């Protein structure tokens, strides 16, 4: 509606201006075409004439009706002629401001800005100043909180809390260390180097070396024991070469040779381990004035560790002696693992006792690669020479030169440093009550203890029989486990051929084509001969002239044959 009034006012002003320019001509002015309310385009006036000012400028220049003089001044050259008809009272400057506010509410009307008094402006400036001061005070308060003084109570409380946390963490670390030391004491004393190695992450090819081997089950050695056996073989070869040509075998020569052969590091610790496993292997000495060649090695005046094999007088270290010593060394390694295996069997819930001479394989739950490392034996050390190597020795020698006051001051200083380096002793935590060893798990609640004991005893008996079984017997049991399926395939072969007997070679070929796994003809023939040995009334193998035939009774039910084979397998397992 406001837009419509403004448009009518523009039209009336244009009519008055045109009439005043043209005089009293009867012509009626052409009205501008009607435009929609949202459009702001206006028809432009023709160029020329003094009345080229826009209608908006005329509206602003027009004074209100109350202030207009009664007689309009005569038009001059620089003054625009007065408007003809006066604008209606509803279209004054306030109506225009109202229209602008409605059309664009974000803009303030000019009347409000112009009508504001200096007092109001001063009040608004004061309000803005107060707001800025409040913001500045908040920023100062935040900066003061961020910059607390050193001796404030808040910092003291924070430091005390952190000290409590540090002490708690220290007590937890000590508890873990004590528990680890207790476990190591139960398993046996270990040297610091071996315990350091066990704490590190061992590669997977060492941790699961026994599982990755493609060998029949037996008394397998851990990876580190195998490496030690290979080191002994290499060292024995080099010592034998040097000893046979009457040359002194020093540790530097043996170390270089072993590292060239194995591409592994060889240290004095490995020599101590070899001495622990095979004490009668070498005679170790610290000798001086050993001839050396080359500039990079030790000096002739230095003490060196020498190797001498333990042999009879006048005998050389031949190949047969090398093989015999290697067998003795590997046998001693197996005995060391057997001792750890014996301790493992004793720690089971029903403890097991297996004679070591009848043991053919390890317990299934015994992890071979987790056997602790061999502790090295003490090696002969060079004689001690009086050399000052520390400040304490210097003070001990210079004590006779000091005065009593200086000695007292040094003693007090030593006491102070000892007290300051002494760690804080936290309160010992209460030991948690340990659960009894034979408490059943939650899944076995409600099961009688006698039944559990019988089941465990049967499992222990079965495992003991498995650990003491002969390798040949183990191979026979594996073949017997495949016989039920082979019996079914063999019967199908005879039914398809429709013959009472077949040559053994043809039967083996048919079986190899029908059995699920790959086998050689010799292995298949061994299975068929074992089947005829276990069930002679059902399968028989006959030799006629130059050929061997196999005969099968097709009238016997196959389920009966399967039951007989399962019964024989159980009997063989109990042996």
Description of the molecule:
About 18% of the residues have low confidence. Strands 1-3-2 form a 3-stranded antiparallel beta sheet. A 3-stranded antiparallel beta sheet has the order 4-6-5. 54% of the residues lie in helices and 5% in strands. α10 packs across α11 and α17 packs antiparallel against α20. The chain has 575 residues and is mostly helical. The N and C termini lie far apart (115 Å). Among the domains are: 89 residues, no CATH class; 164 residues, no CATH class; 105 residues, Arc Repressor Mutant, subunit A, CATH 1.10.10. It contains 20 helices and 6 strands.
Compact summary:
This protein has 575 residues and is mainly alpha-helical. It has 20 helices and six strands.
Can you give keywords for this protein?
575 residues; mainly alpha; Arc Repressor Mutant, subunit A; three-stranded antiparallel sheet; 54% helix
What's the N-to-C terminus distance? Answer: 115 Å
* SS strand fraction: 5-15%
The profile of the biggest β sheet is: 3 strands, antiparallel
Strand/helix succession:
HHHHHHHHHHEHHEEHHHHHEHHEEH
Helix content bin: 40-55%
Overall outline:
flat
